[in-house]
């Protein structure tokens, strides 16, 4: 009985995830919509990161903002994401000494 419940619950979570993937794959969107859809991950990432930047050190949001600016500058040079993150962390660390 428990095994049937587990299988049912797994199907209830898997099916709604797979159906849109198969449907969207077959649809052809206009170019402007494709461009908009490609921007969503970057917008979501920014929405997740920005509040963290402002709250790196309570009462001192400028330190996080400087670290974010350093990350943007490093990323604009095309550096690896690991180097960008290390650069931003090192900046915040040096500003807090």
Automatic annotation (TrEMBL):
<keyword id="KW-0472">Membrane</keyword>
<feature type="transmembrane region" description="Helical">
    <location>
        <begin position="63"/>
        <end position="96"/>
    </location>
</feature>
<dbReference type="InterPro" id="IPR008407">
    <property type="entry name" value="Brnchd-chn_aa_trnsp_AzlD"/>
</dbReference>
<keyword id="KW-0812">Transmembrane</keyword>
<protein>
    <submittedName>
        <fullName>Branched-subunit amino acid transport protein</fullName>
    </submittedName>
</protein>
<keyword id="KW-1133">Transmembrane helix</keyword>
<feature type="transmembrane region" description="Helical">
    <location>
        <begin position="36"/>
        <end position="57"/>
    </location>
</feature>
<dbReference type="Pfam" id="PF05437">
    <property type="entry name" value="AzlD"/>
</dbReference>
<feature type="transmembrane region" description="Helical">
    <location>
        <begin position="6"/>
        <end position="24"/>
    </location>
</feature>
């Amino acid at each position: 009985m428990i095994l049937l419940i587990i299988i049912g619950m797994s199907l209830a979570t898997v099916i709604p995830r797979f159906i849109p993937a198969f449907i969207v794959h077959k649809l052809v969107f206009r170019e402007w919509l494709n461009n908009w859809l490609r921007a969503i991950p970057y917008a979501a990432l920014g929405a997740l990161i920005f509040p963290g930047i402002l709250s790196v050190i309570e009462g001192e949001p400028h330190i996080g903002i400087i670290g974010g600016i350093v990350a943007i500058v490093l990323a604009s040079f095309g550096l690896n994401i690991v180097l960008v993150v290390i650069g931003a962390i090192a900046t915040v660390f040096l500003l807090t000494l």
